[in-house]
Design brief:
This protein has helices at residues 2-7, 17-25, 33-43, 58-70, 84-100, 114-122, 132-140, 157-162, 166-175, 191-200, 231-241, 253-265, 279-291, 301-304, 324-331, 352-362, 397-401, and strands spanning 48-51, 76-80, 105-108, 127-130, 149-154, 181-186, 205-208, 219-225, 245-249, 270-273, 296-299, 312-317, 341-347. With 407 residues, it is α/β, with parallel strands linked by helices. It folds into two domains: 2-208, Rossmann fold (3-Layer(aba) Sandwich); 219-399, P-loop containing nucleotide triphosphate hydrolases (Rossmann fold).
Length: 407
């Protein structure tokens, strides 16, 4: 009974009383599973590999120990994040904790002017949150001194590698002091991440709260098989049916732009988020989506990691992802922080192998739905796309998909 009580509050995780007071004040009452596992180990100074999806509360699982340990010793905490949006979000999560201890933060992101960042670094921040490329720019100009780093967090490490940041991360790690604490958080653990851990971490402890490919707990899922030209008509029917906030995924930024225009033509407010949008435009889109000014946010996978919004009623995979792993990240954007959510995917008749890759990863079958007003299709071959345990060698999984001509 006592153990149960401990895990349902932040008390008993080794957190300093002053931080417990702050958590109480900002209405943080119940720690998430990753916080219960990671916080005590991090406070003990251990290196950690945390395997957790986004939306599981992992930011505070490193923010709380970092502030507590920096309050006790000199030096700087450095957090590396893959996207500008995620870096901004982490910075916001630190503010309440760090300011109570008189600690300043600096957020160094690409696409934003250098001068305000240089000014922030001149004020001796104790916590620096950065995207890898921009941090290297500041290191090159001697604005940031890596030898001050006593704690390092690599957040969403798998996504940083996916985005081609491996050389930058390697470069940064070479300049950091060997005597430091390192925490690495990732939704999946590919081989490249194990290599980083082996090379740059000291006897890391692994904490896992959901195996790779586990979908968010309270998400219901369904699949519609329709011809490409009927996707928009089906989207119109779904937008009429769901009253709440809708996050829609497109495979390409070009298509995201087209879909956004079509949604507006249907009479709904919509904004787009992808790498062609400036930082200001992306922030405006996200803030407008959070405040309800936009009913639909249309995003590509590259922009999706920065979307930390509670209360998304529906995720629509207008295009199936290029990589099955991204399906899990996408649908995890709904049902955050224990709430319920729903995910709908559109597949065209020729996408049987893409659906099968997703089903293998999530270890379950996507239920196929039919809309009374939209012509339902079957997958091209005679076999239906259900989860099969038997390997099918001629579908080279993810490898095949990268060689398809872009639609």
């Amino acid at each position: 009974m006592n153990h149960k009580e401990q895990t349902t509050t932040f008390f008993g995780l080794g957190i300093a009383p002053k931080i417990l007071e702050i958590l109480e004040r900002i209405k943080f009452k119940t720690p998430t599973p990753i916080q219960v596992k990671a916080i005590p180990l991090a406070i003990q100074g251990k290196d950690i590999i945390g395997i957790a999806q986004t939306g599981t509360g992992k930011t505070h699982s490193f923010a709380i120990p970092m502030v507590q340990l920096l309050a006790q010793k000199k030096g700087v905490g450095l957090i590396l994040a893959p996207t500008r949006e995620l870096a901004i979000q982490i910075d916001e999560a630190f503010l309440g904790l760090a300011h109570s201890f008189g600690m300043k933060t600096a957020c160094l992101i690409g696409g934003a002017p250098m001068q305000p960042q240089i000014s922030a670094l001149q004020k001796n921040p104790r916590i620096v949150i950065a995207t890898p490329g921009r941090l290297i720019d500041h290191m090159g100009q001697w604005n940031f001194l890596p030898e001050q780093v006593v704690m390092l967090v690599l957040d969403e490490a798998d996504r940083m590698l996916d985005m081609g940041f491996a050389p930058q991360i390697d470069k940064i790690l070479r300049f950091l002091p060997k005597e430091r604490q390192t925490m690495l958080f990732s939704a999946t653990i590919p081989k490249a991440i194990m290599e980083i851990a082996a090379k740059h971490m000291k006897l890391p402890v692994s904490v896992e709260i959901a195996p790779s490919g586990t979908t968010a707990e309270h998400v219901t899922q369904e699949l519609f098989i329709v011809k490409k030209e009927l996707k928009l008509k089906l989207l119109g029917k779904l937008l009429a049916q769901y009253r709440g906030a809708v996050l829609l995924f497109s495979r390409t930024k070009h298509n995201a732009k087209k879909i956004t225009r079509s949604i507006k033509d249907l009479g709904y407010s919509a904004a787009e988020m992808h790498s062609n949008r400036s930082l200001g435009q992306r922030r405006e889109a996200l803030d407008g989506f959070k405040s309800g000014r936009y009913k639909v946010l249309v995003a590509t996978d590259i922009a999706s990691r920065g979307i930390d919004v509670t209360g998304i009623e529906l995720v629509i995979n207008y295009d199936l992802p290029e990589d099955a792993e991204n399906y899990v990240h996408r649908i995890g954007r709904t049902a955050r922080a224990g709430s319920k959510g729903h995910a709908v995917s559109f597949a065209t008749p020729d996408q049987k192998s893409d659906v099968r890759d997703i089903e293998k990863l999530i270890r379950s079958t996507l239920p196929v739905s039919k809309h009374p007003d939209i012509r339902h299709e079957e997958f091209s071959s005679s076999e239906s796309a259900v989860f099969q345990r038997k390997p099918r060698p001629h579908h080279g999984g993810a490898k095949n998909r990268f060689h398809r001509p872009k639609r």
